[in-house]
Write the structure tokens for this entry.
Amino acid sequence: PMVAMPASVPGRARVAALVAGALALGVAAPASAHIASLTHSRVQLDGALVHYQILIAPADLAEAAGSTAEGGPDRAAIEAAAPRVITYVVDRIGVEDAGAPCPAEGGTLAIRDDDLVEVRWTARCPAAITVLAIDYALFFDLDPSSEGVIRVEAPDAAPIDTVLRADASRLEWDLSEPPPSGTLAFIRAGIDHILYGFDHIAFVLTLLLAIVIGRGPGGDAGAPRWQPRHLGAALGAMARIVTAFTLAHSITLISASLGWVSVPSRVVESAIALSIAYTAIENVIRPDVRWRFVLTFSFGLLHGLGFARVLEVLLPPDDVIVPLLSFNVGVELGQLVIVAIALPLFWLIALAAGGRAYRRVIMPLLSAALGVLGLLWLAERLLDLRILGF
């Protein structure tokens, strides 16, 4: 059934809602988007043996293959450099048992139908494994933001899933104890995605700029004038906006992660950039927060698809529900950190400068800066340019 939008909703918000909703809910052919230096590992324990399998995007193997080709090495270049690539990968992933090194044996390389490079080898430990440790350092020297998603499987135990990164690069598992939970790793991945997702931060900041002021009595001839809101009113407006954003991005994050919705990455990322520019323009022209939750919900659907694009390469092949919910919790926690810092800051600025100066000078300047960022990201994503680089 069709749901009619109230006629009193401002026209711009109605247009934004319709455009964002169409983009977010439209089903299109799946499109994969590579996130730099992110790998998937499957580790199987078998007595004293550790069978290691890792999947790597070809673009990440430029240095390993000695390639300078734009866009990374092609299939032929990787196959020609297979021994070098295997050595490069194996040397950067250490395996131990109870502190004793487990030397790597052999090694094979294959390129799958989905173009991912699969490297396999076996590490032989001195005795049956009791305390497994994996030290993961692949690509950290090239890209400190690299991540490695690892699943470890042991006989008679539930598998564990975790995400290793430069500042948390070691996995340890005492097989005599219950397997460690991967929940915290996925919560942290969600937090990191928000705190390092500058486009998502810019969107939240653009939303928050307008909610610390409102029209009140006291102007010339009794006309309403802009003035700082009471903190309670600002917090109430913030709660409505954050709730709308959370609900919207949770819907599309879960839907896309479970394969119910698929939208091309270029459309999603471009629309996210456009959402920043659009909201910034609204801040300058007419910062009407009464219906800002409609705008926020509409664009939140798009941002949820952006979160899902990241999560789809982090999720293990099965048991996706707990990692999915954990990642979403992390996103919310990261969002709350941003709000907890930015909202009091904007409110204090409005209080110090006065509502008139904040509305006429400060908010337009800050909105313009964020809007320019949005437009530059839009140009980068539509035209495959590199302008900002973040």
